[in-house]
Amino acid sequence: MKDIPSQRGAALLRRWIAEGEHSRQDFKFMISDARKIARSISAFANREGGRLLIGVKDNGSIAGVRNEEDIYVVEQAAQIYCSPAQDVEFTAYSVDATTHVICASIARAQQRPVEVLEADGIRRAYYRIADENIAAHPLMVRAWRRRSENDSPLLFSLSESEAELLDLLDSRPEGMHPRDIALGIHRSSAETDGLIVNLASIGIVDFRHAGSEFLIVRTSDESESD
User: Fold this and answer.
1) pLDDT at res. 30
2) Listed residue (17, 60, 24, 70) closest to 43, CA to CA
3) 124: number of CA atoms within 13 Å, CB side?
4) What is the dihedral angle through the alpha carbons of 128, 130, 134, 136, rounded to the nearest 10 degrees?
5) How many angstroms separate the CA atoms of 225 and 215, rounded?
6) Which of 30, 77, 79, 81 is nearest to 53 (CA)?
7) 167-204 pLDDT tens trace
């Protein structure tokens, strides 16, 4: 492929494809909508990074890249529709003499949130859960912003309210919805949200996606936002 590092990689591609779509991998038969691709880039960058395999159908069959313009649409998505703009690394893998798959690699963002400029003019941050790009929880976005504003280590002591919140979460290791936390510690929703943002920004609590919603949990090695 023109201007893209190319290498033989049929065996590697088949190993990747055998994994299916997951939190770090997405298949794209073709690229036509820059904003839709920007959501994938945002979701990968806001979590652990990932790769788009361009020229692979949803069922895992290798069709090959049909149009080199796909690459420019991905670049447009990353540079124009993502804020801050993201770098994408492209590698072409040759399956045979005429069939090529492009791997577009997205790193975890150094500065989160990575947001997408939507058609309605609103910026939205996305997050990768399994094989889906979902809207990031507003408190998660606030915590990311707080963390980026305070990127140097700080001395920290828990307030009484924060200690109560953590004690409550210790009793509910499966996680709790913010409104239930507010009821449990007898604080307003606004105050509770602020406590969650503070604690999440320094990594003491985290967000776990369960079914159709995010729950607040004590940070662990299995937490989803790290």
Assistant:
1) 87
2) 24
3) 18
4) -50
5) 12
6) 30
7) 999 999 999 999 999 999 999 999 999 999 999 999 99
